[in-house]
Structure to design on (304 residues):
């Protein structure tokens, strides 16, 4: 009980730091800058240097290592987990559970919202994430394959450096799966359904049996606690009933990653059409002492 109180307090203190930015200085200076020629895309800072920004306090991260996996049996092919590190216990237990049931995973495809609308539809980048648990290295060969399908490639750019949808998960992957590689994918909120479907199909064609797809998603946003719980119950029902149309069209009242569910639907239809959703946990930011009038919620689970 004493550890739980300390952990929750530390995580609560982290929230304020996270909202204003807790990044550490980069190891060295950025090398060069080039302006993207695509309308709506931010200036691209090009560099082959790794991303060393910390998205979670190293001490809070280290404290999660004593947590136990969720009670789960089976061989999941995909999952959904939060990127809001206030609930870092859920992220830790998600990857610990995955380690227990699928230790052979070699590639994690992380599908994140493009929170800052810096890419084009479906985007990626190839810079290594340096974390307190080791490096999370990108599987660049897959990026080269995806470029043939029309994905926007920022392989050597720092345009997604601040994107916590991938950065917040990187240390947990590096700790539980040292040596595994990641494929970071960023989806704009205005991604067209046909683009999402095509990307999901393309991804299914060249992924292998040692691939795991992660939807990085926080659920309801900015609602009062009672309203958030109502929307979360709706989202869980959609997940468990495979109501992809509801998930794909969802707004921040249910999830920040509607387009990711369009991609996953297309992916699963080719790879494992009979997979069903298994709920691991559901929490709200108020469980960590946050403001009950402006909440963020978390739904964590596997498709198996």
């Amino acid at each position: 009980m004493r550890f739980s109180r300390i952990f929750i307090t530390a995580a609560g203190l982290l929230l304020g730091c996270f909202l204003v930015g807790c990044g550490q200085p980069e190891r060295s200076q950025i090398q060069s800058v080039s302006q993207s020629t695509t309308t709506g895309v931010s200036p691209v800072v090009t560099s082959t240097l790794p991303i060393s920004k910390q998205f979670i306090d190293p001490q809070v991260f280290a404290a999660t290592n004593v947590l136990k996996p969720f009670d789960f049996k089976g061989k999941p092919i995909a999952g959904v987990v939060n990127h809001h590190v206030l609930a870092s216990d859920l992220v830790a237990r998600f990857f610990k559970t995955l380690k227990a049931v699928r230790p052979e995973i070699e590639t994690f495809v992380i599908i994140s919202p493009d929170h800052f609308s810096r890419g084009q539809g479906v985007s990626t980048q190839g810079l290594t994430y340096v974390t307190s648990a080791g490096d999370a290295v990108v599987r660049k060969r897959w990026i080269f394959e995806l470029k043939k399908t029309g994905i926007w490639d920022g392989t050597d750019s720092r345009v997604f450096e601040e994107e916590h949808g991938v950065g917040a998960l990187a240390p947990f992957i590096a700790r539980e799966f040292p040596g595994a590689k990641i494929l970071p994918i960023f989806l704009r909120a205005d991604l067209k359904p046909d683009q999402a479907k095509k990307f999901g199909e393309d991804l299914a064609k060249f992924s292998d049996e040692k691939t795991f797809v992660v939807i990085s998603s926080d659920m309801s946003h900015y609602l009062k606690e009672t309203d958030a719980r109502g929307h979360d119950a709706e989202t869980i029902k959609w997940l468990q009933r495979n109501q992809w149309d509801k998930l794909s069209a969802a707004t921040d009242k249910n999830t920040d990653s509607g387009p990711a569910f369009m991609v996953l639907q297309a992916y699963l239809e080719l790879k494992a059409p009979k997979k069903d959703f298994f709920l691991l946990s559901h929490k709200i930011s108020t469980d960590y002492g946050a403001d009950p009038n402006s909440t963020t919620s978390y739904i964590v689970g596997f498709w198996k």
Observations:
- The longest helix spans residues 2-20.
- The first strand starts at residue 32 and ends at 34.
- The chain has one domain: 74-303.
